[in-house]
Amino acid sequence: MTVLLELSLPRSELSFGAALNVASEVRVRFEQIVPVGAGTFPYVWVNVPEQATFEEALQRHAVAESFQFLERESGELLYRIDWKAEPGPFLRCLEAVDAAVLQAKGVGNRWHFHLRFDTHDDVSRFQRRCSEHDVSTSIERILSDSAGGHTSELLSPCQRRTIALALERGYFDVPRRATMSELADELGISDQAVSARLRRATKRLGHRVLSEELESDTSRDAGP
Fold it and tell me: Does the predicted model carry a pTM greater than 0.85?
């Protein structure tokens, strides 16, 4: 049974927070939702009053190596941003326990995260690490996610997209018809990011299958 955790933290806790905090009415959410080191969150959706003002603010901050405007959808602007700075202790704490970020958005001076952990022990480890690194978080809600949920809920959108592409391109075939580098090129991410997504997706699907088999065996043993 996985655990869902909702929390918030000051925008200053993320190294690139200042670059996105150009005005109190700016709303930010991230497209890539699995922490993968310095390449975390390259795709950023923003809702800002003036596009030019936001881009000028990005240019002023040293944490952004470069950025590219990609598209506009329903009033939001999608950017690819290459960050100079390291993700910071909060995201390092997530990496240490192999947590998945289901949702991340910034409103005003705070970030709001929806996280998934494999076990309650992982949640405890994450909280201890945050305390050890003086990361200030406010826990808003903790929920247990039963193993009986849909696969579409089990995997993050990025994990589903990556594993679907791997199946379509023959990455899992013997012999393989596609390499990890080819998948990375098509997705526009690093080899490391592809590996992390596939590993996490496989781990979660494996937990699901084993949990369902265990429940089935228990039901048979219990009898009518």
Answer: no
